[in-house]
Amino acid sequence: MGVFRWVHFMAGVMWIGLLYYFNFVQVAALKNAAADGTAAGISKHVAPRALLFFRWAAVVTWLAGAALLGPRFVPTFTLQPEAAYIGIGAWLGTIMLFNVWALIWPNQKRILGMTPASDDEKNRARRVAFLASRTNVMLSIPMLFFMGAGVHGF
Amino acid sequence: MKNPLDSLWGTVIAGFVLTAVLVVFANNFLIGG
């Protein structure tokens, strides 16, 4: 159990750390970089690498969390009273994992040119990926509260 | 109305509000219900 908790924390720090990097640093930096023609350095060399660690850290975090729950997996995800807080945290984390793989990553591939897309499709992909990423920042706040809280929130 | 997620601080505030809502929900409907 201790190993799963350790891996869950390490991968979770990498996942949420990169999520905060994208939202608190890269979005604003890219806007400024686009204005002086230096955005390629970020979008070509930094973003793909950050996204690689971001999306796989999300998977490792979820799997280590599921392993950590062990026999408490079902009571947690069915929000039983004794697992209500961790259950809410687990559901928020699961929704965030879905956002990473179903919304952020496919749309980032269009934005970064890994998947062919027209300019219109790229603009739409930019908006969807941005909102999904911002949604995850919003969800991370209660997710960390409920994950960090004890069984009854103390 | 503007989408709060367009602003970084709107996003953070929305996260704190959502936390409070979920705490009330959990305490009243999941734990105390």
In DSSP terms (H or I, runs of 4 or more residues), the helix count of chain B works out at 1
> What oligomeric state do these chains adopt?
heterodimer
Number of domains of chain A: 1
Structural class by sheet pairing and helices of chain B:
mainly alpha
**Beta fraction of the residues of chain B?**
under 5%
Structural class of chain A: mainly alpha
Q: Unreliable segments of chain B (pLDDT under 50, ≥5 consecutive)?
A: none
Poorly predicted parts of chain A: none
Instruction: Determine the fraction of residues in helical runs of chain B and give it as a percent range.
Output: over 70%
Overall form of chain B: elongated
* Helix and strand element order of chain B: H
The tally of beta strands of chain B, per DSSP, is: 0
Count of spatially separate domains of chain B: 1
Radius of gyration of chain B: 13 Å
Choose one word for the global shape of chain A. Answer: elongated
The rounded distance between the terminal residues' Cα atoms of chain A is 22 Å
* Most extensive chain-chain interface: A-B, 21 and 18 residues
Tell me what you see in this structure.
Chain A has 154 residues and is mostly helical. Chain A has one domain (2-148). Chain A has 5 helices and no strands. In chain A, helix 2 (39-69) runs antiparallel to helix 4 (84-111) and helix 4 (84-111) packs antiparallel against helix 5. The longest helix of chain A has 34 residues, at 2-35. The mean pLDDT of chain B is 94. Chain B has one domain (1-33). Chain B has one helix at residues 8-31. Chain B is mainly alpha-helical. Helices cover 73% and strands 0% of the residues of chain B. Chain B contains 1 helix and no strands. At the A-B interface, helix 4 and helix 5 of A face helix 1 of B.
Keywords:
heterodimer; A: 154 residues; mainly alpha; 5 helices; B: 33 residues; 73% helix; elongated
Write a compact overview of the structure shown.
Helix content of chain A is 83%, strand content 0%. Chain A is mainly alpha-helical and 154 residues long. Chain B has one domain (1-33).
